Amino acid sequence: MMRAVSAAETVATTHPWAVHAEGLRVRAGRHLAVDGLDLALGAGVYGLLGPNGAGKTTLMRALATVTNPAGGRLALLGHPVDGRSDLRLVRRQLGYLPQHFGFYPRFTVREFVGYMAWLKEMPKAGLAAAVQRAIDRVGLTAKADARMKTLSGGMLRRAGIAQAIVNDPRLLLLDEPTVGLDPEQRLDFRELVRDLGTDTCVLVSTHLVEDVAAACTEVVLVNEGRLVWQGTAADLSGQGDPNHAGDSAAERGYSAVLRRHRAEAVR
Amino acid sequence: MTRHPTLTVIDRYATADPGLDEATVWSVEVHLEDCADCRARLAGSTTPQSRALIDRVATGLDREISAGPVPAGRARQLRYRWMTVVLLPWLVMTGAVLGCAALLTILETGLPSLVLLLAPVAPLPGVAAAWSRRTDPCWELIAGTPAAGLTMVLRRTVAALVLVIPALAAVGAGTGASLALMLLPCLAFTVATLLLGTLVGVRRAAVGLAASWTLAVVLPSLATARLPVLLQADSAGLWALTTVLLAGWATTRAGSFRRLSNSN
Fold first, then answer.
1. Tell me: the pLDDT tens digits for A80-134?
2. Do A43 and A162 share a structural domain?
3. Residues A177 and A264 in one domain
4. Searching chain B, which residue's CA lies closest to the CA of residue A89?
5. Which of A227, B124, B159, B233 is deepest in the core (most CB within 10 A)?
6. Within 10 A of A252 (CB to CB), how many other CB atoms are there?
7. B146 touches chain A (CB under 8 A)
8. Residues of chain A contacting residue B138, judged by C-beta atoms under 8 Å apart
9. What residue in B sits closest to A160 (Cα-Cα)?
10. A139/chain B closest Cα distance in angstroms
11. Whole domain around residue A107: which residue ranges?
12. Which residue, B120, B263, B122, is CA-closest to B203?
């Protein structure tokens, strides 16, 4: 007997780009914070750099499907993301750590991560084990049953990372993940991100250029809602010379690229 | 499909017979993973040494499990899944207002039943809190999850209603108001809030509807000391019809809840 094959069965399971944006525009309030951004990211760890107000957080929110793009095209993991599309499939494979994330103070870390795992519609059978694994990976095992309100800033950040990775996302968005982490924890974090980046698209938004230089395979530099530069971390270090501002090669490269872009914008 | 290994092979596997070649051991192992019957047969042929080892592992595991944390109870899970954490303050406030209304109705016999007048808007604070940036500290995390959407709004709305409706019924029974006339408008307003919420945000919809009801119906009835036509016995059918129609309309706009808009 013949059986009809549905479109869902034949759809490709791998896509050239985890994130594919063309002329993306996103509003933050009335202001157009992302204005005509073109971006294509595959698997790997990407560092999103840019000055304050460059539209990094707004871009992250749009990629996390929290805000609706105001224009342009955006596809995540091969699925178009706009006002009309069903977002469930994409959202199940997405991990997101917002810049400021709220939490219920009376939840324990395990309950918080478990609640997020449940919201991400993970199968019930492996849920408790996945929660434990995520908590172990961020090094919060000893604090798993402590209430969220008793945690320090760095621990909260790590709990946030745990909820983002609990569903083994294929697209992981981390907005300022290293804020509040001590130097040793930052090293652990870089290790974790490198590990995740082998088969996942990890986009890390940060101000710390040295984090990017150490943990990211590629750097995405945005300014005023547009893509300014994209390339490997080594390329970024090669952009600057000792005359540019900065204490490390990567920092000098960062300021060199930004200054060049601003000079071109003025012209 | 693999064929079941013979009992002799299973016996030899259980006693770790060196005569059994590696490929057979693997195929037996793969088969055992999926076949409960053969596992039962294997259990029958285990050696005392294997049993002693399994017992030792079991005691060790039991000890570690009893030393570890207690698994979260179902009650806590239910509580956080239905999110009464966020809703609770609003529901307490609603209960207090209804209690005061009941007290006033009983004491001030000259006025129309305040409980009946306030019943339609009683669930609105809870509904507004169900899908709002301001009341839910986790909104940014939740808005990006697949569970966010109409189902989540409805689940939280139901959680609010489950607590508000018994309170209304109890207060209504105390003051002798008609149950249908209290509950039907209450449902109609809940659905209307959700529907209007798809356009302007649930919080604004709740505030707008509550304000219009207060201005258009509650205050005039208090001024004239008479119950409005809308809340007299004949209009129950009208309220039921409105509720059904609005609910139908609201389901067609379900997609709007996928994202938490700026106005919520």
1. 887 677 788 889 999 999 988 888 888 889 889 998 999 898 888 888 889 999 9
2. no
3. yes
4. B146
5. B124
6. 22
7. yes
8. 101-104
9. B141
10. 17
11. 96-168
12. B263
Residue B59 CA to residue A24 CA, distance in Å, equals 59
Q: How far apart are CA A203 and CA A19, in angstroms?
A: 10
In the listed set A168, A188, A221, which residue is the last one of a domain according to the structure? A168
Interface of chain A toward chain B, CB-CB under 8 angstroms: 29, 61, 64-68, 84, 86-89, 91-92, 94, 96, 98, 100-104, 106-107, 110-111, 114-116, 118-121, 128, 144-145, 163
| Residue contacts between A and B (CB atoms, under 8 Å) | 77
Q: pLDDT for B57-116, tens place per residue?
A: 999 999 988 877 666 556 566 666 665 566 777 777 878 887 887 777 777 766 777 777
Question: How far apart are the CA of B21 and the nearest CA of chain A, in angstroms?
Answer: 35
Q: Residue A247: which region, alpha, beta or left (left: phi > 0; alpha: psi -120 to 50)?
A: alpha
- Cα(B138)–Cα(A104) distance, integer angstroms: 7
Same-domain check for residues A23 and A106: no
Of the candidates A144, A168, A192, which is a domain's last residue? A168
Query: Are A107 and A156 in the same domain?
Result: yes
Which chain A residues contact residue B71 at CB under 8 A?
128
Instruction: Identify the residue whose tokens are 């993940």.
Output: A177
